[in-house]
Specification:
Length: 99
């Protein structure tokens, strides 16, 4: 089985279900509801490419963004991820690069 390449630092911008957390925690940490973002992009990423895509987002996005794992990648199939952006320009650039 391939070694897991997921890093804890990638959890920083991960979108979670806010209903699982107390509201005061959400306010203090800056977590947001998915529908509070302007744009939403679905993408399939091969195994090992999530870290690369997240690094790209950190370097290239000009506004806030988050991501959510729908289905993890394996060595035989791509993972399904959702990315959320406050900027339409960031969403388009991401789509052109990763979708």
């Amino acid at each position: 089985m391939p070694e897991c390449q997921f890093k804890m630092s990638n959890m920083i911008n991960m979108l979670i279900d806010p209903l699982e957390l107390p509201q005061d925690f959400l306010k203090k940490t800056g977590y947001r509801y998915a529908d509070s973002f302007l744009c939403h992009v679905n993408c399939l990423l091969p195994y090992g490419q999530l870290d690369v895509a997240l690094t790209w987002c950190r370097a290239e996005c000009s506004s806030e963004w988050r991501w959510k794992m729908k289905e993890s990648a394996s060595d035989i199939k791509s993972g399904h991820y959702e990315f959320y952006f406050d900027s339409e320009l960031d969403a388009v650039a991401f789509s052109l690069r990763w979708s």
